[in-house]
Amino acid sequence: MEILRDIFGALxxxxxxxxxxRSATPxxxxxxxxxxxxxxxxxxxxxxxxxxxxxxxGVVVSAFTQSAFVGFLGAxxxxxxxxxILAYFVLKLKSNAVxxxxxxxxxASGGTIFVxxxxxxxxxxxxxxxxxxxxxxxxPVIQDIPVIGTILSGHHILxxxxxxxxxVIWYMFKYTRLGMHIRAxxxxxxxxxxxxxxxxxxxxxxxxxxGILTGMSGAxxxxxxxxxxxxxxxxxxxxIALATQAIAAGNAVIGMFASLIFGFCSSLANxxxxxxxxxxxxQLMPYLIIIIVYTWYCAMVERNKLKxxxxxxxxGETHVK
Amino acid sequence: xxxxxxxxxxxxxxxSNTTINTNKSYERNVGMEHDFILEARxxxxxxxxxxxxxxxxxxxxxxxxxxxxxxxxxAGKSTLMKMLFGxxxxxxxxxxxxxxxxHFSSSKDAIAAGLGMVHQHFMQVPSMTVAxxxxxxxxxxxxxxxxxxxxxxxTKELSKNYNLKVDAEEKVQDISxxxxxxxxxxxxxxxxxxxxxxxxxxxxxxxxxxxxxxEQLKLLxxxxxxxxxxxHKLNEVKALCSRMTILRDGKTMxxxxxxxxxxxxxxxxxxxxxVSLDIEKDEADFGKTVFSVKNLMYTDHFGKTKVxxxxxxxxxxxxLGVAGIDGNGQSELIEIIVxxxxxxxxxxxxxxxxxxxxxxxxxxxxxxxxxxxDRMRYGTxxxxxxxxxxxxxxxxxxxxxxRGLLDSKKITEFxxxxxxxxxxxxxxxxxxxxxxxxxxxxxxxxxxxxDYMPDLLIMNQPTRGIDVGAIEFIRKKxxxxxxxxxxxxxxxxxxxxxxxxxxxxxxxxxxRVVGYIDDVKNTSxxxxxxxxxxVKEDTKEHIGGAYSE
Amino acid sequence: xxxxxxxxxxxxxxxIAILLTVIIIFSxxxxxxxxxxxLFLGPLQSKRHLFDVFASSIPLMFTGLALGLVFKxxxxxxxxxxxxxxxxxxxxxxxxMIPLPMIxxxxxIFIVAALIGGVIGSIPAILKVKFKANxxxxxxxxxxxxxxxxxxxxxxxxxxxxxGTFASLKYSPTATLGNxxxxxxxxxxxxxxxxxxxxxxxxxxxTKFGYEIRISGxxxxxxxxxxxxxxxxxxxxxxxxxxxxxxxxxxxxxGMYQRFNWQDSPSYAWDGVIxxxxxxxxxxxxxxxxxxxxxxxxxxxxMSRRSDVQNELVSIVQAVLIxxxxxxxxxxxxxxxxxxxxxLKEEA
Lengths: 321, 549, 348
Fold this sequence. Notes:
The complex is a heterotrimer.
Chain A: H1 2-11, H2 14-39, H3 47-65, H4 68-92, H5 97-120, E1 136-137, H6 148-152, E2 155-156, H7 157-175, H8 177-187, H9 189-194, H10 199-223, H11 237-248, H12 252-271, H13 279-320
Antiparallel strand pairs in A: 1-2
Chain B: H1 2-18, H2 20-30, E1 36-46, E2 52-62, E3 66-70, H3 77-84, E4 92-97, E5 100-102, H4 107-112, E6 115-118, H5 130-135, H6 148-161, H7 177-190, E7 195-199, H8 207-222, E8 226-231, H9 234-240, E9 243-248, E10 251-257, H10 263-271, E11 289-299, E12 305-315, E13 319-323, H11 330-338, E14 345-350, E15 353-354, H12 360-365, E16 368-371, H13 375-379, H14 386-390, E17 401-402, E18 405-406, H15 408-421, H16 438-451, E19 456-460, H17 468-483, E20 487-491, H18 495-501, E21 504-509, E22 512-517, H19 525-532, H20 540-544
Parallel strand pairs in B: 3-8, 3-9, 6-7, 7-8, 13-20, 13-21, 16-19, 19-20
Antiparallel strand pairs in B: 1-2, 1-4, 4-5, 9-10, 11-12, 11-14, 14-15, 17-18, 21-22
Helix pairs in contact in B: 10-19, 16-17
Chain C: H1 2-28, H2 32-41, H3 47-72, H4 80-97, H5 104-131, H6 135-157, H7 189-206, H8 208-218, H9 220-225, H10 230-256, H11 268-278, H12 286-306, H13 313-326, H14 332-347
Helix pairs in contact in C: 1-13, 2-12, 3-7, 3-10, 3-11, 3-12, 4-5, 4-6, 4-10, 5-6, 5-10, 7-8, 7-10, 8-10, 11-12
């Protein structure tokens, strides 16, 4: 009972929803990245590593240039470069995408610490680097509305970018030529090839877009609220994005909601830390809920498929008679 | 750029729409014009590995005709059409479109030259709509905004003009195979094709849908398009085409006006063979019934009935041949018997035991061996060793074990025994099976199934794509099995194989048994061909003779 | 031909990795000689260091075996991570809370850890078979769930509140594994690991089920036509892999630690990926692959202690190796030329 009261208590605070959007942001950006790759037919396991490297590069570049914007560009460029490496191995050398992804994640987790130590002499975090943060943005008008203003205004700039990108990616798949080609290549490469679409090229573009989006997400982690890089700071968000994108099934808007589920759980976890629920249960909850939603989704897809087949077969039988 | 092309197509459409009457008179003139719109001159194709798929093939297509390209499986039809469509390039000879010699480096070039192809496996993206599939790769609108409305309009317009009804806004995954085929034709037309190649288009259609397709193809012809119709169904060719070119064993057997040839002649030209391998076998001496299937029915999830009320039985010492052109339900029939596909109706018995619902393993243990039609996909694990591939039938038995564990010595011995007995050419029994030639792989597979000493041996296309030596060897082994008083079910598209081995034959056409032959010695390939092509059909009573309790 | 090609390609991948290492060291270090010497030869300097290599290879063997088995069956579950971590927690729980006599104590721990590890391993597999949920996605999520569950268990039941950092109470001496050689870290867990290597080798290559794993992993269609129940193979392999990883977690805890202090999940499961790849998913080669990785790990530790180059360099080497070894088309041109040469020679 007390727990329920705590939960309702959390849900009634506007800050709770603010935190929800904040926690959802990196997962959302990465989900979009995973989605673009996945729709082109490559499952990009390297997101976790790309995010980590971008987070690191963003901090270092912003510290050295003393420009948050250049730092951000550095993070995005890192995402671009790493996804190019991945694309080279997966598309050109025909490596297994999952194993190459794991390799890149290994590279990221050790490599960032390695270079961090070279620069700062520390292995844990970039505290000694004077890195910069990207700004928060207050939205005129909206910020003055009570409750809604607290929830929607004053977010990190990349949070807004992420939600705008939802529309952009959604639009891309729905309306642009590139989006159509990515879908075609991912779903039936022979069909795409037969109408003159270069499968390799489209897959490459998709992987690079995926890397850039994930690079932004890395920048959010280290140049958002915390303003520093710490080793392993991605904490599995790249993997969560794999699950949320699977739930989204290629739809950016559903991907947004799936990311918000994660944001909701994380935010709730934050608020319940002072309640009687053991901390670890709260921490594992987002992961568990994502598993449940994902499995439920898979079960539904499977059921619908069987239904359709059965219907068709029945139609056929009556047709014959 | 692509957008303009689409516009040009549209203009062409309106144009052709208004000139429909003049087209008709034009058609009448076709016979007199000896100007060919598409030609293949002395085309030869040698695949890597030395297989000659086409040898000095000649094809001459007149403008505005529906031209049939007929031949058995493996006669070289698909190789020829792939060359025409730029998917592969000829080793020798030339391809001429509108009097100009062409050197296609990809399908793109062929499309640009006005060719369109309707593949047997539709080249479509299931989750996209009909209109989206139509414009894919040549989109309407800009790169920032694909104009879907326009796409739908174009689809409807094209659909109306050619009387090819499609639901422009439905997703492809939700439409019927017949509609998907129409979409495939529309795709070609949208890209400006005036020469259409259709690769066995009726294989996926019901008879009613086939009739409809023919009407539409005739309409296309009337509008000035040229159509190449690839088929081996004689009645269809007769109903649709004016001229035909026959291919056999990679060579052209000539081009004829359809009206000048009767079915017997066509059949002879198509299936007649220069050499047939003679097989010595004893007089038939059947024992008791070993295996039977009764009233088997199977409808696939596209709603097409693949196996339609099939019944037969096989006795000890009997080879039952199943003849038929590929894709007439033989594969499904075998999959059902083996147990990987579930029939909707009907029962299967072996040695009096009902195995209609038994697992694959249970069926094997009741005495079934099976050589599958695709040895690399279903019959072997290509990356694994000869040993691993040789023991798949008995790996769980005590035969290979010492103190409960698989004994590698015994496995090697067992494998070598099979390899020696079946004269397989190999380096050592631990090399992966994919390193062997097709014939040798097949010998390993046959050896494995043979060694099992089953009561029923199923041989599905046992000699497809292998060398003559291996063919002869495997046929001898089949006869040996018969001598051992086993029941053998032989499925083959190769008529000489069916005729020389079988004691009795059933012929399948569109999922049904249309012929039962118990007097094989006095049956010719030509006669068999008539059944296979759907020209001839036995009475129900006669076909019933294939089944006995 | 194929075997020779694989060997040459492997050698090239190693050469690239080593070259890259040397280049990195030279470009960042003030004492590249010391660094390189310690990285490549450090472990050979003393008996103690050499046996450290053997000790460090123990958990790698377990995860390498687990991952190799999963890969062999054609699946891609990373659940070994959760199984290993939970196995460690189980070991701590029983070692602290249940008094048992010597010898019996670790045996009970191993059995329970393997059982629970197996149960955990089965979850993504069952979700895959029943709901078609991708096992990689679910296993990655479950790793976090079980990690937090483990932390909770330790915190709730046997954490040492006196200790400055996260650590459990001390293990009962009846539970811990003794050292095989005094003065080194090598413990009896090494023997257990080798026994598991042998058992898994026998399982994969000498039993009916192992045959089913190999066939299903190599060509599932052929498996189906051969009457193999592929769903059963998927679930059972991952149960066994989970059990091996769970046992590995317990062995590592009882062999190397006095108390449970895994505040982060160790990366052994991810290291298992490269072990599995290097060993070609054959248990027989796992000890060698694990030894190799442990060797450069120990070498890197020595390097970071004795020079200015940090041991995380290893993960770069590791990544480069994985990338090149699994690149199918890497050096395909070379292979083709060799083949062409061979054919031409035969014709001549």
